[in-house]
Amino acid sequence: MEFKDYYTTLGVAKDASDAEIKRAYRKLARQFHPDLNPGDKSAETRFKEVNEANEVLGDPEKRRKYDELGANWRAYEHGPPPGTTGGWSTHVGGSPGGGYRTMTPEEMEGLFGGQDPFSDFFHTFFGGAGGGPRTAGTRGRAARGGKGMDVEHPIDLTLDEAFAGTSRRLVTTRDGSERTVEVRIPAGVKDGARVRAAGEGAAAPRGGRAGDLYLTVRILPHPRFERRGQDVYVGLDVPVTTAVLGGEVEVPTLAGTPVRLKVPPLTDHGRVFRLRGHGMPAVGKPAERGDLYAKVAVRIPARLSPDEQRHYEALRELSGLTNR
């Protein structure tokens, strides 16, 4: 029986973080998925290896046991030594904390025609209490009705799209044929959120339920607005005369309609005004809005007319007399 170096399979270091392992698995699973490599036996082999590696390293308990094996793995070949606690139990669906879903042994067997896609090494140490390979009959019964693999796809949204909600059309491949899927993105969606389209993932083995499609959202930077949770921040140019004497200015909003703000006299550069209810909506609750924060930037005129020049000079003289 050959020892499996799961870290090498995923191309990560032995001290890799959970996030690094997850990213490596996602990348390789997309690269070698059978739907994208029909008839490619080498890609099929790599996909099986990658899935098996993630089944172990993506589960904290399995990874701990795997790291404990180390160079002494043969001593555990027939199960845990006497006196140790616990069995080599499998965990369906990846790590207990959730995240990117791996394919179960049953799903893998269904995807590849009932052939056992996991190595003897995996079955010995992680194939269920007592270890050992399963029989063909057991595999066939478990494979029927299994769920297909979930698929994850990154998408970029502007902040305006995240504010108002939008949709994305994607062309996916299932069973060798292309299909178009339109996914609705809710208003208020956050950076890093995963939007689920049920049943739009990979086909299920032997007539089971198809997997789900997850769109991972990345919010692009906005040239003017900055989002912080449900609140939005914006710079506000205020003429120097308005900052000194007071007045009204228009504050831009993501809704597209500016709101008027009353600026009190002697407003300092950098002062922040809060406009309630003009921030981002909560997902599924459009009436619940964050706030809009406008930060004052006192605007100096680019040029002065002769009249303005005289007034500013008079003001300087008056300021000099006042400050004596």
Strand coverage percent: 15-25%
CATH C-level label of the largest domain:
Mainly Alpha
Low-confidence stretches: 77-101, 128-145
What name does CATH use for the topology of the largest domain? Helix Hairpins
What does this structure look like?
The protein is an alpha+beta fold and 324 residues long. It has 3 domains: 144 residues, DnaJ domain (Helix Hairpins), CATH 1.10.287; 72 residues, HSP40/DNAj peptide-binding domain, CATH 2.60.260; 98 residues, HSP40/DNAj peptide-binding domain. The protein contains 10 helices and 13 strands. The strands form 5 sheets. Strands 6-7-13-10 form a 4-stranded mixed β-sheet. The protein is elongated, with a radius of gyration of 30 Å. About 13% of the residues have low confidence.
